[in-house]
Amino acid sequence: MAGMMQEAPMIKITNLEKFYRTEEVETIALNKLSIEIATGEFVAIMGPSGCGKSTLLNILGMLDDPDAGSYVFNDIEVAHFTERKRADLRKHNIGFVFQSFNLIDELTVFENVELPLIYTGVASAERVKRVEEVLDKMQIMHRRNHYPQQLSGGQQQRVAIARAVVNKPKLILADEPTGNLDSSNGNDVMELLTDLNEQGTTIIMVTHSEHDARYSHRIIRLLDGQSVMENIMV
Amino acid sequence: MLKNFIKIAWRNLYKNKTFSLIHILGLTMGITVCLMIFLYITNEFSVDSFHKQGKNIYRVMRGFDPAKPRTAYLSGPYAPALLNDYPQDIKMAVRVRPQNNLVSFGEKAFNEQKVYATDPGFFKLFSFPLIKGDATTALENPNSVVLTETTAKKYFGSTENAMGKVIQIDKTLQLKVTGIAKDVPSNSHLDFDIVFPIANYTKDAGFNVWINNGLFVYLLLNEHSTQSALESHFTQFMDKYMSKDMQRFGAKFDLKLTPLKGIYFEDASSFDNVRHGDKTVVFIFISIAVLIMLIACINFMNLSTIRAVERSKEVGMRKVMGALRNHLIIQFIGESLLLALISCAISVGLLLMLMPWYNQLLGYKLSVAWNEPPIYLFLVGVILIVGLLAGSYPAFFLSAFSPIEALKGKLRLGKGGTLLRQSLVVLQFSISVLLIIGTIVIMNQMHYIKSKSLGYDKAQTVIVSIDNNDIYDHRRQFKDELQNSGVVSSVSLMSGQPGGFFDTHTFTAEGQHDVFRSRTEFADFEYVKTLGLKIIAGRDFSTQFATDTTNAVLLNRTAAKELGYTPQQALGKWIRNNGRDDKPRTIVGVVEDFNFLSLKENMDALVIAPNDDRRVAVIKLKPGNIPAALASIKEIYAKVAPVYPFEYSFLDQQFNTTYKNDIRQQAMLSIFSGLAIFIACLGLFGLASFTAAKRTKEIGVRKVLGSSVTNILLLLSKDMLKPVLLATVIAMPIGYYCMNKWLQNFAYRTTLHWWIFVLAAVLTFLIALFTISFKSLKAALANPVKSLRSE
Ligand SMILES: Nc1ncnc2c1ncn2[C@@H]1O[C@H](COP(=O)(O)OP(=O)(O)OP(=O)(O)O)[C@@H](O)[C@H]1O
Ligand SMILES: [Mg+2]
Fold it and tell me: Which terminus of chain B has a smaller tally of CB atoms within 10 A, N or C?
């Protein structure tokens, strides 16, 4: 089904390059990488450690900018956007899920999930409604007043996913979302992502697990910052 | 958004109790000290600013010796003459004669020390508000008197009762209370309890003699006149009225005006018995305030930065979700503003609690203008400066990181950051060491002065003032009875006890072309014996020489030297006090120099002569029971001056009076430097906690690999102590320079011993080490398995 899309792809990167310079060495993290991802896809990115997966995800998420190449997101060239513009585009369109959850320890479950709504300027009453809705969906409503440290890993990741989706983003980027979880909790997370994808959210997920990758439509395999193979799932 | 800011700021404070406590404690102490000093300084600079006509009020100063500061003491005729001669310049002239009197009402009698005899315009010229009575007429009638509120209550129980009552001054004057003045605030150079018309004295024989100086003259100039315009007439004025006297003294006297606002900061050594301030002290205190605030702010910056690093995940996540750099800057600055606000609130509370103690330390009541803007402006200023200054570094530092780096928790503080933080710690400790050095030097100097041999015997010596007519008229009887009482070894009546008043007079001396100026002591024959002075040439005054009273004089060694003689050569030469002696006196003896002046002043020439002028009785007790001896003296005093209360002091307490301000400065400086090092250590403690926490894993690994607790302690402390060491090295030369300068205030001073600096260094080092090892030890002793698992 990939590649047959009539409409323009959601993400189109062309000859993307990213270097890291330290005092001693220069690392080429992404080497003239070109990828297209259509709206509604569920893509897994795999590859050995250090091949540039996280780097790619950060650039796709507009957390970082590339050194060369083009990145078109929904028909907009964003490769050279200012921080302010990127932040603006990001907060309305993209949700993030990390391996280490990255919940803010000082805020409760409810407040953590509420935070993206605050940054997009949603009114208070509407925020409560939407946070409760999503917490309900993630089945952590009963933990709404707990602090992250009081939750299990699986619960924390569910909060993180809740936070990622509360703004109803078009794209969710997940960097090894199951990396810190046991297989049962991991499967729960994968089910959640699959549900979200079925409801129309585009998902790009970095993973080391072939098992998790099987939930996706397509696997992009990277090696040394270059795409070496694409497997399309049946 | 704002609510979220405040919420997270508050949770952050709450969650990191140690850090918040260090922050708030340090800042609160800093702000409190600054507030205290701020109040002190505003009080100093507000002195006399409440007088509505203040900008046209001047005090007349009289110069008598180009080498000495002018004196404020003038005689009775100046004011009427000035007013008469320059009516176009002078609108009003008011004489103020400070005196002490026995004041009685019925059974109650007190020797009042703060009595002013003034011209009737006193309350018109100065804006001392009257609670009762009319300022323009209260002193019109010579038989009227104005009391302050407190004095009125002392005699009559209440201000209502006081009005119209008649009090008695020195048993001779009957005065009716016609006004009650508000108590004189501490920010006034004039200070009185009782004011009554000087008209009661203007007919006294000596009052209208031009050279009988003993009162102040205040002038109100006309709007169109100026200080210089009036001063330009003064040479002519002095020639007109004083030419004869100037000829007789062989000196030129001149007049000058001091604007009212300038009086307070005039040279305090002029001995004019009004309140004086010291600009050096003001400067020292401002410096201390700035330094302590600096220390507190540095703590704030360092700890906030470190704290912020620990919050990198939060920063990162906020950025991921779309927070912009300025959001984060606002948040961090907001948090530091919140902390500053909390600290300020606590400081104000603390200040209110400390106020009585602070007033006691200062020795007077500060007038705090709570209803005026300056103090609030100051508080807002402190909050803004601290909040913005201390908050902006971590804010800008942190918000500059990219979200990815922040999320990785990789906000390493970089080489530059570490260097900056270390330099700030060096700065903090330099200041602390500096203050410690200052404190030790001042303590050392005070000790030196206290224990220095002054050249006279001050032990077991009682001073009784001859300050009323009864005791004055019966002073011989008083002396004789004391000598016969058996408790006294000797008594001498004199014009000034050591450390007291020594007027400068002009002399004509054998073989001298120029007038010779010298301090004078007018005393009886027991002077040398009572003070235990040493005769180094010739002899003491003696009753065996009947003419000594009129013909003999003693010099101190300096006086002999200034006349160009060795002590031996001086004997037999003549000398004449231009103002006092009709004929020359012969120098019969020379005494060894003794410190009759404060040790701040150089040794001066002193001429001791038996002319009239007895102001104090100095009584040397026999060794033994002091209370019993005092009781005997009191009994004798009661016999000769029955209505006057018996008041006395000890000669060795004179020290505390003479060095009152230095002792206060010492006390305050020790407190403030103690606070400074405490605040600096709070910061060090914070840094140590951070280092220990950051290196928990490293310590764990090292311990697993076999490192001992001592090794780890050494490892942790070494890095922390380096800046302290550097600070000590930097502070020492600065401390040497500053304290050397301070010591120049004293004619007699200790050397800046090397051990002072070593002591300051060791002290700082030990305190710092103690602070650091507290945390380091905890880290070093922790179970390695635990710290490794926590990763
Ligand atoms: N901030 C950085 N500075 C220098 N080099 C970096 C930085 N971040 C990543 N790299 C380098 O870029 C390359 C790609 O890193 P990246 O984090 O994208 O790998 P990854 O595929 O996510 O690996 P893993 O599966 O281990 O997470 C690596 O060689 C890494 O060392
Ligand atoms: Mg990675």
Answer: C
Give the bridge partners for B435, in sequence order. Answer: none
Tell me the C-alpha distance between B197 and B192, whole Å.
14
Indicate the helix (H) or strand (E) that contains B103: strand B90-105
Ligand index nearest the alpha carbon of residue A208: 1
Quickly list DSSP for A185-202.
HHHHHHHHHHHHHHTT-E
pLDDT at A43: 95
What is the Cα–Cα distance from B57 to B90, expressed in whole angstroms? Answer: 10
> Which helix H or strand E contains B576, and what residues bound it?
strand B574-577
- The ligand with the least distance to the CA atom of B405 is 1
Between the alpha carbon of residue B570 and those of residues B74, B383, B560, B561, the distances in Å are 34, 69, 6, 9
User: Where in B423-546 does DSSP place strands (E)?
Assistant: 461-465, 488-494, 504-509, 516-522, 535-538
Q: Strand (E) positions, B360-472? A: 461-465
Task: Give me A177's structure tokens.
Answer: 């979302």
The C-alpha angle with vertex B406 and arms to B405 and B411, in degrees rounded to 5, equals: 85
Residue range B72-92: average pLDDT? 93
Smallest CA-to-CA distance from A149 within A179, A106, A119 is with A106
Is B4 an 8 Å CB contact of chain A?
yes
Residue from A16, A18, A20 to probe ligand 1 pocket by mutation (most atoms less than 8 Å from CB): A20
Q: State whether the beta carbon of A49 lies less than 6 angstroms from ligand 1.
A: yes
- Please count the helices (runs of H) and the strands (runs of E) in chain A: 7, 10
With beta carbons less than 8 A apart as the criterion, state whether B27 and B300 touch. Answer: yes
Q: How many CA atoms lie within 13 A of B446 on its CB side?
A: 19
Cβ-based contacts of A115 with chain B (< 8 Å): 4, 317-318, 321
Alpha-carbon distance values, B287 to A166, B283, B435, B734 (Å): 55, 6, 11, 14
- Sorted by sequence, the CB contacts under 8 Å of residue B276 that are 6+ apart come out as B189, B264, B265, B266, B268
The protein residues having their C-beta less than 5 angstroms from ligand 2 (an ion) are A 54
Task: Identify the weakest region by mean pLDDT among B207-211, B402-406, B438-442, B644-648.
Answer: B402-406
**Of B591, B572, B577, whose CA–CA distance to B498 is shortest?**
B591
Give residue for tokens 């505003």: B42
Strands B57-63 and B488-494: unpaired
DSSP label at residue A150: G
Task: Kindly state the tokens that stand for B770.
Answer: 């103690």
The contacts of residue B576 (CB under 8 Å, 6+ apart) are B507, B508, B509, B583, B584, B585
Of B86, B61, B46, nearest in space to B218 by CA: B61
> Where does chain A have alpha helices with state H?
53-60, 83-93, 109-119, 124-137, 153-165, 183-198, 210-213
What's the pLDDT score for residue B791? Answer: 35
Is residue B614 a contact partner of residue B472, using CB atoms and an 8 Å limit? yes
Q: Which among B266, B273, B227, B218 has a CA at the least distance from the CA of B47? A: B266
**Torsions phi, psi for B202 (to 5 deg):** -65, -20
* ipTM for the assembly: 0.76
What's the gap between Cα B407 and its chain centre? 56
CA distance B179 to B176: 9
Q: Per-residue b/e over B392-430, b at no fewer than 16 CB within 10 Å?
A: bbbbebbbebbbbbbbeeebeeeeebeebbbebbbbbbb
Map out the domains of chain A with their CATH numbers: 40-63+82-232 (3.40.50.300)
Is it the case that residue B464 has pLDDT exceeding 80?
A: yes
Q: Are B181 and B130 in contact (CB under 8 A)?
A: yes
CA–centroid distance, residue A54 to ligand 2 (Å): 4
Q: What is the rounded average pLDDT for all residues in chain B?
A: 85
